[in-house]
Amino acid sequence: MANRPRAVALFGLLFSLLFNLAFCKTLKRDVKALNEIKSSLGWRVVYSWVGDDPCGDGDLPPWSGVTCSVQGDYRVVTELEVYAVSIVGPFPIAVTNLLDLQRLDLHNNKLTGPIPPQIGRLKRLKVLYDPFVFIIDGPSESEMEQTARCPSSRNRYLSFNSFKGEIPKELANLRELRYLYLHENRFTGRIPAELGTLQNLRHLDVGNNHLGGTIRELIRIEGCFPALRNLYLNNNYLTGGIPSQLANLTNLEILHLSYNKMTGFIPSALARLPRLTYLYLDHNQFGGRIPDAFYKHPFLKEMYIEGNSFRPGVNPIGVHKVLEVSDTEFLI
């Protein structure tokens, strides 16, 4: 009986929230923005977006992929997930008018052109899947982190957009951003060092693009990337070496540098990263020896080294099954 008042109070609170969500008006700014997006999308999205109010109107439910929350006396759009619906054309700029947006997912479409600098207006954005990740039933933050730490996870990253141009430095205005996936596109130029000022950024993936420059340029801002755990720079055109200053990113767990044009020796300072778990160095132009400290690291599970010019005796860490076959072996 003692818990009955508490249960009644919780029921009342839940009813109040549902009542407010159902009967509050949606902010006109968000209604206008979503209707502009609706008018620019293909029929596969539009057929399920019924009515004029994206948060639902009367007996009409919210639009598919649109999540709304109550803010004061109004409803605002906080999540927009429009993926795998064959959207064709440029990034819909009207998205940048959804100023309360916390999660954006447009992956597995046919978007082209640059990401507009207006993206920096979304100050509350925490997750940006813009070519991005394949999501099943919207994983929690902890599940996303688990997937990021385990590259062999069943949840593989899929991306079918073709964004090009430079990565806009205005992304650094998204102060709440935690996960940024920009892989598998056609981005060129250098990765903006300004991204290092994002105090909450945990996962940065710009792999499989046409990016150049050096890691030294990326981490040139003092105190950069304080919360970064996973850094994917693979399959680009990065040059130069691995700077010892990279060891200042003390939360780093995954460093993926495969398939670039990097040179030089592997600095022993990198082995001082206390949480380093996966290190991908393969298919670059590194040379010399790998310091013994890497082989004594308490958490390093995998270190890929093939396709470089290391001295004899340098060995990978972990179990690797790599088969390199020369053309001559196919001659009869």
From TrEMBL:
Pfam families: LRR_1, LRR_8, LRRNT_2. The keyword Heme does not apply. Residues 28-69 form the Leucine-rich repeat-containing N-terminal plant-type domain. The keyword Signal applies. This is Leucine-rich repeat-containing N-terminal plant-type domain-containing protein. Keywords: Leucine-rich repeat, Membrane, Repeat, Signal, Transmembrane, Transmembrane helix. SUPFAM superfamilies: L domain-like. Transmembrane segments: none annotated. Residues 1-24 form the signal peptide. InterPro entries: DNA_repair-toleration, Leu-rich_rpt, Leu-rich_rpt_typical-subtyp, LRR_dom_sf, LRR_N_plant-typ.
